[in-house]
Amino acid sequence: MISFKQLPVEAKAAVAAGVVFFSMMLSRSYLAEKLDFRTRRWLLRLQMALFANTLMLMGSLHVWRSTVTTFTRSSAASSFCFMLWKIAVFMFLALAHSSFFTLLFLVAEEPYFFSLAAYTCLGAYIILIFFLFTLGSVEQAYKFLAGRGAKAGTGNKNRTALKPVLAVLLTVVLTVVGLLNASQPPTVNSVEIPVHKLPSAMNNLKVVLLSDIHLGPTVGKTKLAMIVRMVKALKPDITVIVGDLSDAEAKIIRPAVEPLGELDSPLGTYFVTGNHEYYTSDVSNWFELLKSFNIQPLHNENVKIVSPKSTSDWFCLAGVDDIEADVLRYSGHGMDLKKALRGCSSEHAIVLLAHQPIAAKWALQERPDINLILSGHTHGGQIFPLNAGAYLLNPFFVGLYQVGQNTFVYVSPGTMYYGIPMRLGSRAEITEIILRSP
């Protein structure tokens, strides 16, 4: 048998990732009752950071070999410039790996420069890995089609050197474009949606949809204050936040959340959890904090939205917990559609808030009489090349979908971004939804 020492470095990294993943499952199953809440929360987030880093290690080895080792036999390998290049690549990889740990140590009212730099490197790392893999696949396909008869020569060596150079140049260009795109204020997208059985007295009711703000290492109070100003300028009747408001504990980031207290929609502001709320393991404190800002969490529950013109005209606004609560076995939480829709009959219009599009799909399978579901989660993929994965993994990707004759689903591409301060192939959005009575 091959010993662990004899395994390639990539295989060792894969084994390490497996060990960390197993420890995550073990601690959730057997240590949950033995550790106090704060320790368990910190341990979970540390394990997630370690798991991400062990997976990234395999990619980092490939990046190093492609951008550094490939050139060690060239005439420039002994030059001062090449030494600087090696240092730059090492620092780039170190920053990318450190990004996940900023959630543990560098969260405050405003982002630290280190966190912004680390997550920018993480975004560039993802793009670079994609281009190295793609160009490598193209190179292998070319060799296969051209045949193996030709002897290796200068042309082959030049092509080998060209691949990492081209990948780095493309990565730099797209990183700059992504940073500039994400630095712009969210676009305001106005959408008219017909809602079956919406009372005529509530025609043209305006709902502003926010999602995936991700207060944390790279999004702080300044950006949230900008979002709140934009929402107030729209003068919505209702404001809804469909999850992933924050990546940090309520106590740590409370100063950054204060602008939410300025939201003053006359028919209320409502919130449902996203998967990242459960990653913080601090949902109860978040609920209390939001209530102090007059924002009502819908924890598998509903409210009647009554027309200001007539108390007999109303529709049911319901919200479900994110499905990740079930995966994490988060006590007292989890998607419970029956509880959320208790008292909501098909005689009145039903609007559901559900963070993940897969939850929207499940909800419609159980209750096809829901008229409108508002979701987020996908970020529109946020950055290339993650867009394709987000599209394939979600039944609804981004924008408006009609399901059946009287049901619509709207998926927000997110109001900010998660961690990586970049957007490629997507745009941050504040959605102004005008409800139309049929």
Automatic annotation (TrEMBL):
Transmembrane region(s): 12-30, 42-64, 84-106, 112-135, 161-180
Keyword Nucleotide-binding in record: no
InterPro entries attached to this UniProt entry: Calcineurin-like_PHP, Metallo-depent_PP-like, Metallophosphoesterase_sf
Top-level taxon of origin: Eukaryota
The UniProt record lists the keyword Membrane: yes
Cited PANTHER family: TRANSMEMBRANE PROTEIN WITH METALLOPHOSPHOESTERASE DOMAIN, TRANSMEMBRANE PROTEIN WITH METALLOPHOSPHOESTERASE DOMAIN-RELATED
Protein name in the entry: TMPPE metallophosphoesterase
Organism: Pheucticus melanocephalus (Black-headed grosbeak)
